[in-house]
Amino acid sequence: MRARPLATAAVLALTTTLLAAAAPVRPSPSTPASLTPPPGRAGAPRLAGSTEVPVRGGSARFDAPPKTLAALKSRGVAIAEIDTQGQISPHYSTGSIRLGIKSGAVTNSGGKVGGELRFSRAGIALINIKTKKVVKITGFVGDLSQGTLHAVLSRGTKTTLGTFTRPRTRSAIDTEAAVLRMDTGITVTSTAAARLNAALGTAFFTRGGPLLHIRIDAALDPSVDLVTALHLGRPTPRTDEEDRAVPSARPRTVPASQH
């Protein structure tokens, strides 16, 4: 006679367990709100070393190295600015031209600066004064991850204009001012050299030759925690080459007589 009550009790217990498992878990009043993911943001990304930090503006100065400028001048080639409307200035430049930075993003790519910088629509014109041949160089884009500078030559296809050495992230990022600072030389690629020579009727440009020197001040999004986003909290080990360049960075060996 006791089998039926026992069976009924077992069914009730099982039902209660299943209902409890199906019920949503509500945090207790003592659970911090920050530990409960808000609706629709369970997978919200967190700042990490590969985070792209948006570029909010800035400027860059493009300088022709003195030797390059002198060599171009001896061949009758002058430099002039191009405004954002594509008009060439009637006045020749002294070899220093400023361009605005309109957008981009910066990352920490293996301890070196990565990302991309997109410059304003203005540019540089190279003019062969004797033959009146002109090359317009506009649409500059800096690929910081690859160390390449791209541009459009005379409204043609985009060309890899030159290459540059990528700086270390820790030394290039000013976290207090939220600015990326770069000071680097650009050497011309073989493709760009051939196109420039053909367009100007010269034989000056050669692969690996100095083309431009660029000084960049790119404003980063000030709302981003740059130290966290770009992994700047831990020092990046120096290379042997950097240690040789900075003797104080090497460990000092104390002679045995001083022990």
Short note summarizing the structure:
The protein is α+β, with helices and mostly antiparallel strands and 259 residues long.
Q: Secondary structure elements and their pairing?
A:
Layout: H1 3-22, E1 53-63, H2 66-74, E2 77-82, E3 88-92, E4 96-109, E5 112-119, E6 123-128, E7 134-143, E8 148-153, E9 158-163, H3 169-172, E10 173-174, E11 179-188, H4 190-200, E12 210-220, H5 226-229, H6 240-245
Question: How would you characterize this protein structure?
Answer:
This protein has helices spanning 3-22, 66-74, 169-172, 190-200, 226-229, 240-245, and strands at residues 53-63, 77-82, 88-92, 96-109, 112-119, 123-128, 134-143, 148-153, 158-163, 173-174, 179-188, 210-220. The protein has six helices and twelve strands. It is elongated and about 55 Å long. Strand 10 (173-174) and strand 11 form a beta hairpin. The protein is α+β, with helices and mostly antiparallel strands and 259 residues long.
Unreliable segments of 5+ consecutive residues: 1-49, 245-259
Shape: elongated
Termini separation comes to 94 Å
* H/E series: HEHEEEEEEEEHEEHEHH
Q: Please tell me how large the radius of gyration is.
A: 30 Å
The counted number of beta strands is 12
